[in-house]
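Board notes (copied after class):
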Amino acid sequence: MENLVSNVSIDWFNLTLNLVAGLALFLYGIHLMVKSLVKVSGKQMRYFLAKMTTNRFSGAFSGAFFTAIIQSSSITTVLTVSFVAAGLMTLQQSAAIIMGANLGSTITAQLVAFEIGSLALLLIVSGISLQFISKIKRYKDFGVLLLGLGLLFYGMTMMKEAMIPLRNYEPFLLFMKEFDNLLYGLLAGMIFTAVIQSSSATLGIAIVLASNGFLTLPAGIALLLGANIGTTITALLASIGSSRNALRASLIHFKFNFLGALIWLPFIPQLAYFSQSMTIDNATNQQLADYVPRALANAHLIFNLINLLIFLPLIGVIVWMVFKLVPLKESEKNNKEIKPIYLDKNLLETPVLAFNAVRLEVMQVKEHFSVFFKKLTPLIKEKNSDKLSKQDLQIKLISNYQIDILHYLGEISRADLNEVEQKHFLQLMSVLSLINRMLETTETEFLSALHKMAEENIIPSDEMTIWITKLANEVEKSLDKAFMAVSEQDEYKATEVIAKTHNIDNLIQNVLQHQTRQLKPSNERIKIFRLEMKIIYSLSSLYTSSKRLARLALPQNKK
């Protein structure tokens, strides 16, 4: 047995540098893996996450599967909170997904526990080569994935080798002995994860310490239980000042992980024995030391799986507790303000998800504008100033909402966008520009004419009202279809919008003929004529905007 000494000559500068550099490479490797996996499967996985929530079991499965694919429980949680805020899923459904995400995140531990550091440089070289040689975007993304995986393993190897001098350093070994008190280990894992805002870093360090023999299996499990709590504290603090639904979802995550850790704390020795038996049976002490990282990864999987099975049937109780802590406010029930619900700064690092968030917000603009637009034509006959004032306020709220989306899109542009992402950016800029034009046309032309009619007590004829209503209905259908076309990149819907040109032109011609027949040489009639035609031309301009919007969904050669 080697002698333990307290005066070992250790180059602390190099040790610290190699340890920190190894951790940085490890975290950057995970970042590259997440980025590449999201690019390859982000859009499809997002729809999968939104659709697979019919019950708590399918919700948990989708959360686990989504997180396992993209290797980021943070992205899963962010998307889930945005779905809740949008009303696309209930808080109970989101709870199931968040619980499932914990299980999906155990894949990272299984990956890190593999002893394949010798392949790290090969993976790095292969990844860089694919990025430089391949001209196919999917292969380039796969190259980023290999590079990330290589950096992850290389970082682990660097950290492991950096700590070798500490194997005979008595003060450090005595310090690590403190973690045999499992409560200390849990608190250390929680605080460290909350401070550096990365449960992956805690996981990596725990496995490095275990593989060097500094950390026993029970102490390592306690650290990971603490990391499970610590990762929710960061999200919980970030949600303060955000929407109340975001706070509720973060509280669900915290409660689930906190209660799960407390349940397991007294049973860590039994869990360690079971995971060790799973990993290697009838082994020598040296073999057990070599297999501690694998046993630690297995323990991580076991406690997250059993926690899911325990708490999944209790989702209703957890949600009820959360609503007791964060009840609905009257202002929340009656809030008229329109705010972005999908835009999250955490998505800016992965443009494909950020662009998807913007598209979802654009569809929300369409929904708000559609509700607003339906209320306009009845006001032609009503002359109700109060209702018109409400419409003034509503269109200003929609305009401010559109500006918020534009600012977010501007933040995406600061990222290093590839050619495909630049095309998405330009398309969405064009969409928002057209939305701005539509809002201006409606406010300065249509609404302005309605105000003038109300002020001067002008009521269009019944026949003219019918023509305006008919034209407005056709324009509304075109706008709706154009938004759908550009959101889904649906060429068929886009051509349908453009094909309506003849019908819209005929309607406008019929209105003009009617106006010609009704026109009389009187100041009153001329005033009515001008206001009526102002509405007609505003509707014509809105249809033109819908055509331009639809053309954005067409291939370049068909525009």
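Comment from the instructor: The chain has a mean pLDDT of 81. The domain at 345-558 is CATH 1.20.58.220 (Methane Monooxygenase Hydroxylase; Chain G, domain 1).
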